[in-house]
């Protein structure tokens, strides 16, 4: 039995809590969660990136998804915590667990700042018939967690308009129009990337996500930005204040909400705003529930951002070509492992001008490791690369000009016929989606089949979305644009608009054998205007050859070959002038028509 | 100024109404509306199938869609009624019209039985700020309409279990389970086709829709069917009563709802149930809002229905082949017009065993008429068929074994290269959707692109849905399955299930020149079960050659040719044994591989 679990239970008893729920979340719904907020990891000992811990005096359960079943099983052994495999048939779900284990009129402890209002309401509704209440102001982490990592706010810096393409005054003006259109006059933003975008600011509070802890409140009278004071230089503070922005302490948001009055019609995105902040809003404030408009505005890249992304992807392509060329001449001759390969690739990126950071930890999965979708090599799992099979490399960078995300599956030598067949089908999937022509109004769910049909025709599939939005020098995963097929209602993606960047990354995974994924970032661009509407298409931003050695040409139609050859022609034209002779010769061969 | 409009205004004045709204609707939300309910047509003189009339003391407006702009303009000339072109930019919408023309605290007259509860609530919400009330119990039609056509209830007849495949006791038992699952114990059904399906009864109250005016109320104690007494023979009444069904008068539904008490948890589909019926439910009855489960149950055809549909489509194919063969040898030699061609086709269907009725009026549009999506030839528009261009024929029948719906576009002679190109692209659209392989969970919106991409790639499209569900000896249009791409939320189609029948009818229309549509009915069937799920596919139920004379073979891929040849091979195998020598020889030629 973990002592941290015991300490938590003692604290729960002191506070009269019958259960507590600990998600893996900060106060902003961020995908990547700062160490300060890893209380679930602290109590459970489970180090995976996703999971929810629920503790009662008698029981404790950890819910996590398929990526982490094995790891969680090992890490939870002897902890006194039961593993609940989310999504598996017969697994008890958290509300049912709470219903079963909690008494009538029980108190469920949860830090209301770490769950969305929507999630909190959902829990309340499910537990209503037992009259269970949400004790949402219980900060158990602060009470129990000795040695909790502090938040050390990193310096916020300004992204010049020459990079951002649009000043913050202009962005704020457009946002205020959208707020008006929704029927509101005020708006609370709690999502870190939306705030960073809106103010043309960047930070470093979450590794590889250039955002900073903050809130933003827009009222008819003022625009307030709530940040840690020490994160702002005096110059930047002055610059913001000169732009009419009121700078307030990060923690003052609750008080600021409490000061709103009946003249305020506050636009709230209840899937983003935390339960606690929603509760801090006075009753007399009229609420308008709707999507945060800045999420959509941010997703539509402006001409400067688009030009930057093309440039960032050229640099990224140069780095990838250097890496691929090196890999080809090294594997089988000198020792290379997953980790050393990733390090080499990272160094190729780092040497590019205006490189700021990786956009996520490089995934380099060899052989069976390629089938683990979120694999990251560790000293324990690291393995040498042999001149056979596939190395799957998913990686990307933040440059001053934008963010990249690319996956290539690299044949290191001999492949089985099955490997080649599947590689060819995944390539068809990627090419077919990238070649789509469609009228304005289409969503990702309308197009996704193009990236799956070659697999579906064989009764095969991949168990992840086909693509996600990519931030501009922001989070590598952003919404609302996406490619997917089996989620509806609110999770359904938005209408695709020119200027959106979405990844196209179909894959195929044979557990214990190999994994294939091929990913290009696609920019949605305008096509012809006809009497049937505004047609749209995609421009591939990613510039890097796709191995033809793994292709089984007999499976390709002439159109497939044309699409691949056109892409390679483009890669050659964009990159060849940027490469030294050796890499240029390699690229020439790698991009020759098939 | 029409005298009917004046009479209506006088009656409105007597009743103190500031406006009245007259939709084209019966009490059941039926697509085809009995003459008794054509009050909008009576008052306005506009005979199109769709339109809403709004009348105030000073103004009158008729809203209809693009199909009817020309016709409405002609028929409304001099009537004192303004045409409002729905869906055109800048057209004032009905709520805005009411807002502009009605006084504060005004009374809007509407027969609450002819609008859904959802629609009524929507109107109320939009007009709330002017405190306008819905005077929903005003039956202006009865007061104003001299010579209103009566409802003459047709005899209801029983569809034997040998055709229906499932007894009504079994259907009721399954439905009651679904009601329980929704959290209710009672259910009100007002949709005529769902009631006909549930009780294995058919009627003739609406031409070509074998349904009968009725309501159904299920409570924990009993199952009540509300019908016109004269529609039931004593034998059928007894048979139903022996099955435990309480037969009550059609008009008694309001009273029956009023008798419900607090023990009742009533499942209501507010998009189906009328505003008036919803208002008749006592306040103490707990309402469960959700979809009517019988709509989904009905859409999944059972093995007997499927076998019947295959048989019905063989008969329909024989009729179509006779027609096509006759057309080919007659046009250019003897006089044939759109109407005489349609009559010949109808006679071919009528001569089939167990033929009951057409499933809708045959559309036979020659040349430019083919571009009018809902064209029906009249003596005024009827035109002779020449040995050139396209004849578009959309038709279907009700057989005891099921309902059919088929469109073929028939080249009568010389075609322009553009005609051939578009015909070939429409054919590709139809074939690609029909050949889809996909996992369970897909909806029509995921697949629809397959039936559009060959057109989208050229910046072209068709402005109608790709396909609708087909009833089993019921309405030729039914839900919830459909193929479409640009409607979301509640209008989004359901997950496709094995046993559903959906049409696949892409088209292309050049206004004033020609129209192309090719339609097969597709049965959703089970494919392989793999570790990625239950895969599904389609079986074409429609059996009729598709003209290859209009195909431009150079635009087809080998796969396209294979798909067409496979389909024709199937048509040949299924129909050749059923045809006399001449038609058999014709079919042999028509189905030869390309």
Structure characteristics:
homodimer, 594 residues, 6-stranded mixed sheet
Mean pLDDT of chain A: 96
The global form of chain A is: globular
Number of beta-strand segments of chain A = 28
**Overall SS class of chain A:** alpha+beta
Helix amount of chain A: 25-40%
Largest sheet features of chain A: 6 strands, mixed
Unreliable stretches covering 5 or more consecutive residues of chain A: none
First-to-last CA distance of chain A: 61 Å
Descriptive report:
The structure is a homodimer of 594-residue chains. In chain A, helix 14 crosses helix 15. Chain A has 20 helices and 28 strands. In chain A, helix 5 links the parallel strand 5 and strand 6. With 594 residues, the first copy, chain A, is an alpha+beta fold. At the A-B interface, strand 21, helix 17 and strand 27 of A face strand 21, helix 17 and strand 27 of B.
List the topology elements.
Two copies of one chain form a homodimer.
Chain A: H1 3-15, E1 19-22, H2 39-44, E2 52-55, E3 60-64, H3 69-76, E4 82-85, H4 94-101, E5 107-109, H5 117-127, E6 133-135, H6 140-144, E7 157-158, H7 161-164, H8 168-181, E8 186-189, H9 192-199, E9 201-202, E10 214-218, E11 223-227, H10 234-242, E12 245-249, H11 253-258, E13 265-268, H12 275-279, E14 286-289, H13 293-299, H14 303-330, H15 338-350, E15 355-358, E16 363-366, E17 390-395, E18 397-399, E19 402-403, E20 406-411, H16 417-434, E21 438-439, H17 444-447, H18 453-456, E22 467-469, E23 478-483, E24 501-504, E25 507-510, E26 514-517, E27 520-530, E28 533-540, H19 558-575, H20 581-590
Parallel strand pairs in A: 1-5, 3-4, 5-6, 8-13, 11-12, 13-14
Antiparallel strand pairs in A: 1-2, 2-3, 7-9, 8-10, 10-11, 15-18, 16-17, 17-20, 18-19, 21-28, 22-23, 24-27, 25-26, 27-28
Helix pairs in contact in A: 14-15
């Amino acid at each position: 039995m973990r002592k941290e679990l015991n300490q938590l239970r003692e604290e729960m008893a002191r506070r009269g809590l019958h259960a507590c729920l600990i998600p893996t979340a900060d106060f902003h719904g961020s995908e990547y969660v700062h160490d300060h907020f890893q209380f679930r990891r602290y109590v459970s000992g489970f180090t995976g990136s996703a999971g929810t811990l629920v503790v009662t005096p008698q029981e404790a359960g950890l819910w996590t998804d398929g990526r982490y079943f094995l790891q969680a099983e090992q890490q939870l052994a002897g902890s006194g915590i039961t593993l609940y495999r989310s999504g598996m048939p017969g697994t008890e779900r958290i509300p049912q667990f709470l219903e079963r284990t909690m008494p009538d009129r029980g108190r469920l402890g949860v830090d209301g700042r770490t769950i969305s209002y929507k999630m909190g309401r959902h829990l309340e509704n499910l537990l209503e018939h037992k009259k269970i209440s949400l004790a949402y102001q219980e900060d158990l982490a602060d009470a129990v967690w000795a040695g909790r990592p502090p938040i050390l706010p990193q310096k916020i810096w300004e992204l010049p308009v020459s990079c951002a393409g649009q000043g913050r005054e202009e962005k704020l003006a457009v946002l205020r129009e959208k707020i008006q259109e929704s029927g509101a006059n005020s708006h609370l933003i709690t999502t870190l990337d939306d705030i960073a975008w809106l103010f043309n600011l960047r930070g470093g509070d979450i590794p590889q996500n250039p955002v900073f802890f903050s809130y933003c409140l827009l009222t008819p009278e003022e625009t307030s930005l709530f940040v840690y004071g020490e994160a702002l230089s005096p110059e930047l503070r002055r610059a913001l204040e000169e732009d009419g922005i009121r700078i307030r302490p990060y923690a003052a948001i609750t008080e600021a909400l409490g000061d709103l009055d009946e003249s305020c019609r506050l636009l709230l995105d209840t899937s983003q705003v935390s339960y606690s902040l929603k509760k801090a809003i006075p009753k007399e404030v009229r609420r308008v529930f709707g999507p945060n408009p800045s999420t959509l505005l941010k997703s539509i890249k402006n001409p400067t951002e688009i030009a930057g992304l093309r440039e960032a992807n050229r640099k990224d392509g140069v780095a990838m070509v250097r890496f691929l060329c090196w890999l080809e001449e090294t594997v089988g001759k000198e020792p290379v492992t997953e980790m050393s390969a990733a390090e080499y690739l990272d160094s190729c990126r780092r040497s590019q001008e205006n490189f700021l950071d990786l956009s996520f930890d490089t995934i380099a999965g060899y052989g069976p490791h390629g089938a683990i979708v979120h694999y990251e090599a560790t000293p324990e799992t690291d393995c040498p690369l042999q001149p056979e099979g596939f190395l799957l490399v998913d990686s990307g960078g933040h440059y001053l000009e934008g963010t990249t995300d690319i996956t290539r599956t690299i044949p290191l030598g001999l492949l089985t016929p099955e490997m080649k067949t599947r590689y060819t089908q995944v390539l068809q999937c990627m090419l077919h989606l990238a070649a789509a022509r469609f009228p304005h109004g289409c969503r990702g769910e309308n197009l996704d089949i193009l990236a799956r049909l070659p697999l579906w025709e064989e009764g095969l599939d991949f168990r992840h979305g086909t693509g996600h939005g990519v931030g501009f020098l922001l989070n590598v995963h952003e919404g609302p644009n996406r490619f997917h097929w089996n989620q509806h209602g609110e999770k359904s993606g938005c209408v695709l608009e020119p200027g959106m960047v979405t990844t196209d990354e179909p894959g195929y995974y044979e557990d214990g054998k190999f994994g294939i994924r091929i990913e290009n970032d696609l920019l949605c661009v305008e096509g012809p205007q006809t009497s049937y509407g505004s047609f749209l298409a995609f421009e591939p931003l990613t510039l890097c050859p796709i191995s033809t050695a793994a292709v089984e040409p007999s499976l390709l139609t002439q159109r497939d070959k044309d699409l691949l050859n056109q892409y390679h022609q483009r890669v050659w034209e964009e990159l060849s002038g940027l490469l030294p002779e050796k890499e240029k010769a390699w690229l020439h061969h790698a991009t020759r028509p098939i």
